[in-house]
Amino acid sequence: MYEFLTSMELYTFLKGPMVWVAFSVFLSGSVYRVISLLKLARKDRVVYPYLNVKYSLRSLVHWLVPFGSRNMRLHPWVTVFAFAFHLGVIVTPILLYPHIALWHDAWGIRWWSLPEKIADFMTIVVLVCCAFFLLRRVFASEVRFVTFPSDYAIIAIVAAPFLTGFLAFHQVVDHYRLMVILHMAFGEVMLMAIPFTRLHHMFSFWLIRAHTGSEFGVFRHSRDY
Amino acid sequence: MARMQRRTVADLGFDETIKNLSPDKIARTIRYVLEKEAAARLKAYVDTCIHCGLCNEACHFYVSYDRDPSYAPVAKVRQTIWDMIEKKGKVDPETVKTYARIGFTECNICRRCSMYCPFGIDIGYMMILVRRICGLLKVAPSYLQDQGYSHMYTYSQSWVAQDDWVDTVQFVEEELRMNIKNARIPLDKEGAEIMYSPHSLEAKFKTNLLANIAKIMNVARVDWTMPSFDGWDSTNQSMHLGDHETMGMVERMHFSAGFRLKVKKIVTSECGHSFRAAVYDGSRSLGWKEPPITYLQPTQLFFEFVRDGRIRIARKIEEPVTVQDPCSIVRNRGLGGMLRSVVKAACEDFREVDPCLEHNYCCAAGSGVINYGPPWKFLRMEGGRAKIRQLQATGAKIVIAPCHSCHKTIEEMIDYYKADMHVMFISELLVKTMEIPEDMRTPEGKGSDQ
Fold it and tell me: Measured between alpha carbons, how far is B183 from A215 in angstroms, rounded to an integer?
């Protein structure tokens, strides 16, 4: 098992074909999920007639700016952790130098990368936030009451690539290739999990907010933040 | 994991009706509603909710019951919709009773939680689905079911037949003439500007409220009328039962009455749910984006009267006054500003509540809960703790609540919590403070309150 996990073949497979698979599954799965939801929304007759750009944006802005909504002000710690976490999860992998180097090797494209220290810091922030969410699930009774095994699995799916990436980059563990292999495997699992788990909220967030924001603005004449 | 712990309540509508259920019937009903009737919203909400528990603060039950996690909005979804989906509807009658208890008695569908969910998930909508399922299975508080049947038989909420109604109007008019000279309550006047549509209780035992409205209409010299025929009652309890069919019928009848009398607008009674039923649930179920005829809540009408000087305030109330923002008219239609404007015009010392406007707490009696009768009174009293504490904190002696549910339950809570205040409708406030024009004063009334 150990030999397989550290083998060059697995390394090449995860670095090559599997990346194609992971990105295809992620992209096509996400597009499929979004389109099928938009189509289904026709059946729900009260969604499209009330949609409104201005109020959708009003709602999105208030929920994308830290402390822009009353509930964020009621939960300052969760707000800080949640914003730091989402920023780190999305920005770090895209602007990480080793990732950009791989894109450059493969397709010859490159873009601005984060300085190493900042990238490190953001990775640690993501991991600390994951720990915070985990502790909140375990110790906050109102969260524990609605926690299922899948909720822990989602935290694990997100934390794993960051943890292994950090360990690999700093070569903390003896076998460097093992860590890189695990990192690539977990990263690919996360990408593929997005359309099929509740991580899908990275797309549905925009759609639901647009509906709720419009509903409150156009019909209810009140604020949803 | 924490368990849902509730006191046992005897209600025939739950205890007897579940005896008629078979597992097959339950599964068919749940699947019909969740798969055939509900579409994108349910799917998006269930697939998106990340179980973060940030909606909890939004719920007045959660706050009132010392942050018991089983009262959090997401917990209610967990115990109903998620459970149904997970078990594919294969549940026993006892479980349906639990669903019904949560859907009917522990959620007022005030929709405050959708303002607190980071995704904007409409948890109230999911609770409406729970009520729909339980309503179709006839598992619902018996008092509410009775009112649902009343709508089917008499087109009014509380078994007031059409001839009783006309009789009531006649004696209210006669009494009113003791206060207002030549007061009129015109019935069936075609082409009038306003058709007033009372709450059925105003025709049954709260006739003084109908008299108040008539008094204001007379003083403001409005061209108004009411239908003598069915469709006069603005209430719609079928909506709370999840009986969309009867709800649609009642609303259609109601709008038709307006069209038949060729009026410009319909004004409902100072009631939250009837306004919501007309402009929101009812209109939408009939296929209208907005109501097919201009539909106002009295708050809007009184605001116009005061603004345009049709009603003049003779003497303002001096005691400190605060307001209750009924969910159905404030969070659901943004009338909080108008409410405050009228109250400030008629009162010297207005005290704002915290939180206010669309962020205000529900009174814990909305969406039919006020009508569940004695077995469930404790629920309103305990669930309303957040509300009464918030009102007491203002130091006000009078609470203005333009909604029958809010009005009644806050009045009862004042008694239950021994709070030193009382509740008034806006119409009561205006009747107490408005100036009666010289030509309308009678020797008996002298323009003062009755």
Answer: 42
